[in-house]
Amino acid sequence: MRVTFQEELDQLEASLQEEGALVLRVLRGALNALAQRDVELADEVIAFDDDVDRLYLQIEEGIQSLLARQTPVAMDLRLVLAMLHTNLHLERMADYSVTIAKLTKLVADVEPDPVLLQSLEDMGERAEEMIRVALDSLANRDLQAAESLVDLDELIDRSNRRFVERVVEIVADPGIREWVLRMVLVSRTLERIGDHAVDIGEQVAYLLTAEFREFTDASHPERA
Amino acid sequence: MAAAERALTLRGNARVRRRRIVNRLVEGVATIAALAAVAMLGLVVWSIAKRGAGDLSWGFLTKSLPLFGEPGGGIAPLIVGSAILVGIATAIALPVGVCIAVFLQEFASPRVRAPIQLVIDLMNGLPSIVIGIFVFGLLVYGHPQNGLAGAYGLAIVMLPLITRATQEVLRLVPSAQREGALALGASRWRTVVGIILPSALGGILTGTVLAVARAAGETAPLLFATSIYATTVQWDPRHALPNIPTQIFIWSESPDPADHKRAWASALVLMLFVLVTSLVARAAFVRSRRKLSR
Amino acid sequence: MTEEEDVHQTVTMPPMRPVEVAERQEAEPQARDTVFDIQGLTARYGTNVAVRDVNLEIYRNLITAVIGPSGCGKSTFIRCINRMNDDVPSFRLDGRILYHGADLYGDGVDPVEVRRRIGMVFQKPNPFPKTIYDNVAWAPRVLGLKKELDDRVEKALRSAALWDEVKDRLKRSALSLSGGQQQRLCIARAIAIEPEVLLLDEPASALDPIATSSIEELMHDLKRDYTLVIVTHNMQQAARVADRTAFFSLEVDDSGRAGVLVEYDETSKLFTAPSEKRTEDYVTGRFG
How many other C-beta atoms can be found within 10 angstroms of the C-beta atom of residue A37? Predict the structure, then answer.
């Protein structure tokens, strides 16, 4: 029954996964551009964001139309709402990748500090992994995978601490100061990307359990 | 608040009790009336049966009419004659009646329907002796008496019955059926022939059977059409056909008591025929109505 | 450039439910053929105006829904299209209904011919008291389409998603079927004569929710081969099923009450951002 409705849902979800794949490519592009100080690549990444935006809008309109016409309830409704939120998180992640690309362009002519760069690369890889896990947990309806995102976020935090230690070590050097400042912004941006991935995990948990919980509350009760 | 404190007894007061008595009284009167009607029919059946059953035998049904003064004999020619008369009458009245009913129900505009409906109803109430004289004047006067004239008379008696019954069944066919057929691109008459008439068939049959039961007992139209001189089985309707009702009349006028007894026996045969066909018709109608209404 | 290859590096993701992303359905409506061009349609019963001055076009292979509060003339409107109102004595029609350019109410147009091309399914299932086979075969026989009748019946029953359920009992009475099955039989009966258009007057309102759902699915399949116009008082049904929706409402003036066409647009638009306030009030349930 409601074959056409099911097909519409499946199509929307497929589009969302496609958007996720695009976001991963955008992020990887930005990270590569950063590591190799490649301005042309950075420009490509910025242009590529348009593709993500287009898909974002399409999914938004699709969800609006589906809600109006098919009046989904129960798990269908939670799926549609989860997709609505995930759509937004993915779009934000793409925007953050663009931010990284822009920052790269600003200081492309500066000789980077390899240690700092390495920890940024680590953080980037963590972020990528988190996006992958988040998308998979949605596709496979895997609650454990969704909840594991909290622990992965912890790994980014650890990389971030190493990053901060290194910054403190080298910030005194005037030649590299501006570059370091920009890289601090990059690290914050990567952290934000990780947060959005956790948010996607929360949406998956909501879809599967019908309860909305903030993951961070559960595992870090001492934090507000 | 005071009302809530008063306990609920649910027992009636005097007015309610009076109403109950009146109710029972009316029920009783209605029941007695119904029983009286049943008793009446029972009386008729019983008195005929008492007087006629004695002479009823297989021989009675199969032998030819006795000649004047002769004992014994049977009513075989009468049965054959009645059958032929009613058969021809049905063959005339059935198609004509159904066509009139179809016209009135399916095709006629309200302006046309009303007068024709009136005519049919008047025909229903026409005294059968008037029909008899009409048939006599039109078809028998100047010619020898013949069965066909009698059959026409019976047809006139049967026509309004069949028409009415057919109309009633046609009306029972839901208009949704008509709409469905029309929406398929079928023309009006195709709809009537293919969908409506087949649904109404049961009711038409019932109406016909009832009309047959009625016509079998009609005497007046036949009085002029047949003759008292026919004594043997006669198959040709162009001659006078002996038949049960007229013969009952003739025998009852006769001085011979044996004839009286034959009259009672014939009356019993006729009555049994009418009873059986009426019951059969009723059963068939109930069945066809169940099939139509879902 | 080697760096460019990095951008195009595809990330492996485990498989999810298989959906071909590439075969996305066309979202934009192409230029559609017009089947009905309705111009200034005003329908009256005696002095009562049922619908006034309706103008709209109905397109091929789409499902067009007509919604609105009761008494707004939806049923009258749809019955004008296949001339089913002809038998009502006081009925009068002004304006034109052009079917592929030909005026349906023109001189010399035979309503029987019209109804062969424009079929109708009614609110309460009305199968004939005949066998299942004869229900579907009656109209083709009567209209002279006697060749390969068995194939025709089977094709119609398949299209109505009923064949598998009845193929072993074609000679049984149609009245032995359930309500939903009877309605599908009526649909099969209508498409057995190969019309171009199917009009459905509240086809599911007498059915339970599961039967309703099966009829709605069936309509999605049917629109591949036919043009469908459906009247429904259930606007959620219109939302689920229709490509375009026409909203009728009642207008009261000194000459009385009449139904008018308020808005006619893509269903998605009508239910997310209607242009008319009256439409918005109706679909949000605040009125009517």
Answer: 17
Q: CA dist B108 to B19, B99, B113, B114, B187, Å?
A: 50, 12, 6, 9, 16
Q: Do C128 and B180 touch (CB under 8 A)?
A: yes
Length of chain C, in residues: 288
What would the two tokens of residue B202 be? 């049961």
Q: C154 and C170 in contact (C-beta within 8 Å)?
A: no
Which has the closest alpha carbon to B106: B160, B175, B157? B175
On the question of pLDDT at C125 being above 90, the answer is: yes
Angle in degrees, CA A217, A222, A223, rounded to 5 = 60
* pLDDT one-digit tens code per residue, A10-28: 999 999 999 999 999 999 9
- Burial (0-12, 13-18, 19+ Cβ within 10 Å), B56: middle
Whole-angstrom distance, CA of residue B128 vs CA of residue C41: 58
* pLDDT for res A111: 87
Higher pLDDT among residues B267 and C254, named by residue: B267
Picking from C4, C5, C6 by the largest number of A CB atoms within 10 A of its own CB, the best residue to mutate is C6
> Does the beta-carbon distance from A21 to C10 stay under 8 Å?
yes
CB pairs under 8 A between A and C: 91
Q: Is the pLDDT of residue B131 over 50?
A: yes
Residue among C89, C129, C138 minimizing CB distance to B199:
C129
Ranges of residues in chain A with a pLDDT under 70 are 1, 217-224
Whole-number average pLDDT of chain B: 83
Contact criterion met (CB < 8 Å) for B185 and C112: yes
Q: How many C-beta atoms surround the C-beta of residue C219 within 10 A?
A: 24
Chains interfacing with C (3 or more CB pairs < 8 Å): A, B
Tell me how far the alpha carbon of residue C83 is from its chain's centroid.
16
pTM > 0.95: yes or no: no
In this complex, the chains that touch A, judged by 3 or more CB pairs closer than 8 A, are C
Amino acid at B286: V
State whether C13 and A1 contact (CB < 8 Å).
no
Contact at CB, C139 and B294, closer than 8 angstroms? no
